[in-house]
Specification:
Elements: E1 6-13, H1 38-52, E2 60-63, H2 65-74, H3 76-93, E3 98-99, H4 113-131, H5 147-155, E4 160-164, E5 168-169, E6 179-182, E7 188-194, H6 196-204, H7 212-226, E8 229-235, H8 246-255, H9 257-260, E9 263-264, H10 267-273, E10 281-282, H11 309-335, H12 340-346, H13 348-351, H14 357-363, H15 371-389, H16 404-424, H17 429-436, H18 448-460
Parallel strand pairs: 1-2, 1-8, 1-9, 2-3, 4-7
Antiparallel strand pairs: 5-10, 6-7
Helix pairs in contact: 1-3, 2-3, 4-5, 4-12, 11-15, 11-16, 11-17, 15-16, 16-18, 17-18
This protein binds zinc ion (ZN).
Length: 461
Amino acid sequence: MMSDCTLCIHGHFYQPPRADPFTGRIPREPDAAPYANWNERITAECYAPLAEADHFGRISFNLGGTLARWLDRHAQPTYARIIAAERGHRETCTAGNGVAQPVHHTILPLARRRDKICQVRWGIASFTHRFGHRPEGMWLPEMAVDYETLDILAAEGMRFTILSDEQIEGELDAGAGPYRVRLPSGGEIAVFIRDRHLSNALSFTMPHPAGVDDWLQQQIEWRCQRDGLLLITTDGETFGHHHRQGIEVLGRILSGGDAHGYQMTTLGMHLHQNPPRGELQVIENSAWSCSHRLDRWVVGCGCTPGDSRWKGALRRALDNLACDLDGVYMQETRALGADPWPLRDDYIAVILDQVDGPALLAAHGLGHLGEAESKRLLALLEAQVYRQRMYASCTFFFEDLDRHEPRYAIANAVRALALTRYATGEDLSHSFHRDLQVATSHKTGRTAADILDAILEKGKA
Ligand SMILES: [Zn+2]
């Protein structure tokens, strides 16, 4: 057996935001019974037992911002174990095994450059805040990629990302890599390529614990003869939540290397030991979870049943609103002599409670502002947070408009509108309401404007 064969399992741990943007609380979710909500249930089935088994110290993983915040507040022991496992790995292996993630899980190729930069910077700042060191790599939401996104990752100091084998062109002669991708700016970034078939074999046909040895023999050993690094990437919830036996199966894979001829590694550690070899080109506007380019999040595709024209209509409404909100924000910041986008990028320090609003403004040369001006500007910055949150990928992921995720996007828009109105007196809601009338649920017949009205009604009650 070849002992230079290495295996990495990367878990994408993520939950879409479920909290009400007005109260910050998660409404009771009856289908998660006997738990109060899905976060609690998945914690009990997946995050807590994975952390207790110390698996977070041996896999590579990214932990989404909304989930990390929830765990920090509601499942402290599990959260603390995850952080400690990452730090421990970094101390013994010189590289962390945690990977950062753009903070609101936005499909980055669909975003404007300045929003891409904001999402990436906020993601890096959040990771550094939680794990106590800067990340070296970044997970792209849905692995959605274009060169501009990779350029920004590299400019922000990210050394690597992960893509799926159907998203690249070029020779995969070194297994999962890492490979070099040359960037339009003249720079480069390392890319790990996941083995789609092996990943699916684990995610969708997970063996019983007693069958793990056979599974390793069938799935891993012959690949080890051929490739260098084998990379499995999967949703972290695969272990324990989607498959009850997943925690134990993962444990057996993590400790099965001696018998089956591989060593476990993590992406950061592997990159330190193996500089990129070979060069790949990226297929822009592709993603790992849908083979129809980015259609799923723009116009809809065959991956979901029914009429998905609501997706394009809702996106148009959100884009128009974002444009209006940005216009007001830019006008106000520039009138006060500030540069709008670096100020917004740094606002993450306020979100993370590292500084207060006035201190941030002072650091941007705005310490002279009166109280009313400061308050106005800080309200507009807060509006930008909700405006960013509208674009969580799950807004557009599912089949219908009239369900929690699109409602959540519209509710965030309502908060951004309210903050803007509070700050400037400007009411941008009429055009937004008109745009939302075009988006219709094929299941309930309600339009997105009806959903907006219901949110406003509830707000009044
Ligand atoms: Zn699709």
